[in-house]
Amino acid sequence: xxxxxxxxxxxxxxxxxxxxxxxxxxxxxxxxxxxxxxxxxxxxxxxxxxxxxxxxxxxxxxxxxxxxxxxxxxxxxxxxxxxxxxxxxxxxxxxxxxxxxxxxxxxxxxxxxxxxxxxxxxxxxxxxxxxxxxxxxxxxxxxxxxxxxxxxxxxxxxxxxxxxxxxxxxxxxxxxxxxxxxxxxxxxxxxxxxxxxxxxxxxxxxxxxxxxxxxxxxxxxxxxxxxxxxxxxxxxxxxxxxxxxxxxxxxxxxxxxxxxxxxxxxxxxxxxxxxxxxxxxxxxxxxxxxxxx
Length: 293
Known about the structure:
The structure is a single chain. This protein is mostly beta strands and 293 residues long. The protein has 2 domains: 1-30; 33-287, monomeric porin ompg (Porin, Beta Barrel), CATH 2.40.160.40. Helix content is 11%, strand content 48%. The protein contains 2 helices and 16 strands. The radius of gyration is 23 Å and the shape is globular. Mean pLDDT is 79; it is low at 16-35 and 110-116.
């Protein structure tokens, strides 16, 4: 009897700490429903299009981009996949810190001939670190944001030197057309130009020298779906390259409060290749809890 009473007393004392631990674990591990359910509405760069909006990931939120795939054609006419897993953290209000690791799989041409292949090679193409800050919420004025990117020479297929990109972003909702938004991006990359010969070991150019473009998207809230189109001009970091005009279209769909998938089709309208590109991506949005930041 005495032993049973001690057990009951111990259970009573442990009940409150167990309940507190359960509440804390819920705050840390359960995704934020209000923000995650509208994650399909926020267009990131490359998911599915290159033009992005001026909306940041929620404060204290985490977004895991699982292996967004881009299938692109190189200058020798061969297709190669590029995968860039990314981690995005809402570290401050309207401020996002991201880490990406682009990996490529290509047919490396032989030294004697650029049309023959020396076999399939795979590896890391760089390390991508970026900071995104939304300057204001959209009211009567458009929403503005700035983004700073650093591509670091990590991996066998990265460029020899780091490259730094600054991007200005603007988003405006056109209420007269329904839930339609227009986005404008303009970016410039600082760093040495790349040569088309073996002077650089980069197989995939790290970034365009400059890029400017616009996109338009329309949301279908009842279906948790967003469709978007874009048009842009850019000049690559390769010596002697001309300005390339391209366009694209994409879809984002939210399957659950956590998971968003997207698909995009891109096409170069000018340039020597006039290549097609296809993108497929998915992301999981979670909440990190209020005490971690």
